[in-house]
């Protein structure tokens, strides 16, 4: 979790702005379709900001965040975290202005997607399905659905503009030419209220889809430059992100979705993708655990690993959490319960995928390859509070946690050793000492050694082992 005071203070001022009407239908869409994804608090924050707009006004008076805290009865750090949810899902754009020590924000409210756009969106629809379940999802979709009407039996008798209105005479236009030109000119310093679809969107992580590899798998008869328009590429990135499709599989789906050699039917491609996913992964909707670590937070990009620790960093940065768990079980399917734990790490605790990888691998290694939900969430909460962004930082914390755990177990062992216990009891206690080999990055601590120091340490170790054997032999003879 980010330290909110580094970004936002109660004295910071803000203005709310809307560039289009937010009507009752929009409010219903936000409540029924968006609220399950962002939660009740973020939902309330949106309408708290919207309430500051007077009737038929699209810009509010300036106020401070202290006022917002009082109105919502929430601390500023909570408001900051909930505000990010609105930004991420495309309901709020935030702009910051800093003049000397004065900071002010512009909160620009965005209209939600229409029901048609929402349920056709391959990201939001899948997330809603995951959150509310099949029955509620179908119930919500039916609520925004109307029956189709066959118009084949009807005759279109709609009047055109020219059938109703007569054109202006040339003389009428000429007489008003000066006033007309000045009145119709658009003031470039002001915006007209409307629905600008280009602003109603949201980003899906970073663009990691390899289009160059995709084009190599396409047929030679297809011209990639003509085929891969911006709209098609955007759809490919969304579908690949949600359904975990590599360039090779995507190339086959695209070629099955062609209307002509140079045009893709996007609706058909969407259906092909869903059918492919259903056939490949049965009927389970995809989760969030398919993300990989963001490029801007990677430390091994363009570098070759020189030791085991760097190899593990590279692995954690390039593998998704689900893929990591699959590799731990030799490719076996990840149980739904474990997949839900991964989604919770990424969605609820806002851990980046590489950081989640370190946490998962650490828990598996110290907990006999079991993911204990309560223990995972305890560590995840700590790492979230520390705002861990890189794999290296996560590994340092994991080492510290392992060292603390080892010292605690050693303390228990030393306490038990001071008591008079039977050989059988000592044998039973030894069962709980972990015998399997842990990763070097977790257990090893880097220490500087002087030349010849390693030989001295080995010599002392051999002498101690010899004395220990001699002591055991002496006790055996006395017994």
From TrEMBL:
<comment type="similarity">
    <text>Belongs to the DnaB/DnaD family.</text>
</comment>
<feature type="region of interest" description="Disordered">
    <location>
        <begin position="419"/>
        <end position="438"/>
    </location>
</feature>
<feature type="domain" description="Replicative helicase loading/DNA remodeling protein DnaB N-terminal winged helix">
    <location>
        <begin position="10"/>
        <end position="175"/>
    </location>
</feature>
<keyword id="KW-0347">Helicase</keyword>
<dbReference type="Pfam" id="PF07261">
    <property type="entry name" value="DnaB_2"/>
</dbReference>
<dbReference type="GO" id="GO:0004386">
    <property type="term" value="F:helicase activity"/>
</dbReference>
<keyword id="KW-0547">Nucleotide-binding</keyword>
<protein>
    <submittedName>
        <fullName>Helicase DnaB</fullName>
    </submittedName>
</protein>
<dbReference type="Pfam" id="PF25888">
    <property type="entry name" value="WHD_DnaB"/>
</dbReference>
<feature type="domain" description="DnaB/C C-terminal">
    <location>
        <begin position="339"/>
        <end position="395"/>
    </location>
</feature>
<keyword id="KW-0378">Hydrolase</keyword>
<dbReference type="InterPro" id="IPR058660">
    <property type="entry name" value="WHD_DnaB"/>
</dbReference>
<keyword id="KW-0067">ATP-binding</keyword>
<dbReference type="InterPro" id="IPR006343">
    <property type="entry name" value="DnaB/C_C"/>
</dbReference>
